[in-house]
Amino acid sequence: MGRRPVGLSDEGRAQTAALVPLLRTLAPDRVVTSPLARARETADAVASGLGLPLALESDLV
User: What is the pTM of this model?
Assistant: First the structure.
């Protein structure tokens, strides 16, 4: 795992989808993520679900 290009499992995608309504209550204004595959996939789903921009930050690797 670590820096290998591994995406989310089906369970991870389901957990991310379940998290979006909770995150919406926090009223974020953006989503920031590392460019690593699993983090990016999670952040893409969250940003899309919240209608927010996504910022990649390579320093988070």
Answer: 0.86
